[in-house]
Amino acid sequence: MSNKSFQILIIGGGAGGVTVAAQLMKKNNNLNIAIVEPSENHYYQPAWSLVGGGVYEFEDTVKHEEKLIPRGVTWIKDFAENIDPEQNQVTTRAGQTLNYDYLVVCPGVQINWDTITGFKDTVGKNQVTSNYVKEVVNYTWETIDNFKGGTAIFTFPAGAIKCPGAPQKIMYMAEEAFAKKGIRDKTKIIYANATGKMFGVPAYCKPLEEIVERKGIEVKYGHNLIELKPDTKEAVFAVNGGENVTIKYDMIHVSPAMKTPDFLQGSAISNEGGWVDVDQYTCQHNKYPNVFALGDASSLPTSKTAAAIRKEAPVVVSNLLALMAKQNPADKYGGYACCPLITGYGKTIMAEFDYSKEPTPSFPLDPTKERASMWMVKKYVLPWLYWNRMLKGEPFEPDSWRFLLNK
Fold first, then answer.
1. Which of 124, 286, 351, 405 could form a disulfide linkage to 204, CB 3.0–4.6 angstroms apart?
2. Does residue 404 carry a pLDDT above 70?
């Protein structure tokens, strides 16, 4: 197949790729930009916790990719297979060779199925579910709604994961659903957490510890799920500093470890872990200056969330345009991320923070408190802003939402 050339080539048409392309086109609609993205559909994954909790429709988290690609941007519906940063080329699964002047890498991450024996074959049936597997998100609510009591396990893995608050969001909603059905006293809830704490930011860790205590949830730290035995409904955990432990379950929600797409594993632009090796402030590659990365597949040491991408994207755009103008990339990303921690139906802690691991609230309110207003932001405001502002390259700042401050 013949070569194609672009000023800017973007790998990934998710939140990062579409947002960067839209912002670039708003700055200069004469740019020659292409997005490599194989998927027909684009998903608003932050709402999958709400789908699993029975309060949001899965169909409302999906739009056709073609409707989101900015006008004037070429959509290459194909998989990236190899990146040659020395030749400024990307080859695709279909055999296309794509030349670029500048490359933006944001293909997201994928489930690392190999870390849990038996998971791939049993998820979506036999009371094994996961909000991280799009095909079975609806099954999460079916499992919770049909639960009759017993042991319900929710897991958090070792290693990288999208939205590290999500594994406990669904647990809190399930706990309240069980209480509403009158089976809470017949249910043991276990949070098997491979790490040693509830959350990576100390200010938000303490209220979450209080919440699991209040809800009577048993937290097992240092427990990493490594195997499922669906025939006997047993989960096997590797335990820090000890022997493996087997726990019987009546339902289990699994949050699996994740990794970058296969084409980044061992790539010249990736570090040893497979993450695109960029400066944590400029998002510019540490070896190849015409390469930038953002989002889940980048080495940026912050949470892998759409909210982080919202702050990363303008930095990438600014620094990329500066480089094109033969100026030094000077814009800085401070590590901002946001994790709306759903703590029950109608309650959310809006956890915002940056590289300092300190709260960076957008509202003049104590960010460590559960609030009904933040539930409304999570359920209604953020999805609207995602589809109608962020993906269209329009700026928005949460501190302008003054109507919420009386809640």
1. 351
2. no
